[in-house]
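Q: Start with the shorter request: fold the first protein.
A: Done. Sequence, then structure:
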Amino acid sequence: MYEKSIGRPKRDPFDVLIDALTAANRYDFLLAIVPIAFAVALVGASVLGVSLEATMVVAAVVGMVVIVDACYLNPPTERGPT
């Protein structure tokens, strides 16, 4: 049993990615930096032989700076639909 799409053309996955990236704003990218910082810290600790605690402290400081910037220094000012 197969499902058929009715009148819905398939979209190219690359076009979907481009649409998602253009819809993202500054705060979406800032929030993405936090887990990326921790992932880079884990990889850096294992590849460079630096202690895990030192890299986690650096990642936590990066995350803290990003969140403080996004929430307090440059908070969102746009009002969404009510």
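Q: Next, the second protein, separately.
A: Sequence, then structure:
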Amino acid sequence: MSQNPYQPSGRANGQASQPGEVYIEFQAIGPQVRVTAMDAASGIEVFVVGPVTASRSDLQTLAIRKLQRRMAQGDDLPPSSGRGILA
């Protein structure tokens, strides 16, 4: 049986995520690209927006650095109860 290349990795298929594992998503929106970076273990997610002309590696590096900074801030934000805006 051949392995499906589109099968998700990490926790989605029952495997534990590795320390430092980060999911990256690129989404083109008109003349911009939204890059989302999410830490697999904690679920902390950040995004950056840049021009479509920017290099993919530069945007990815920026998103990862923003994620690292957010994770270094610790738990100074109040816990979220789910969807919605915290006011």
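Q: Describe the second briefly.
A: Residues 56-72 form the longest helix (17 residues). Strands lie at 22-29, 32-39, 45-51.
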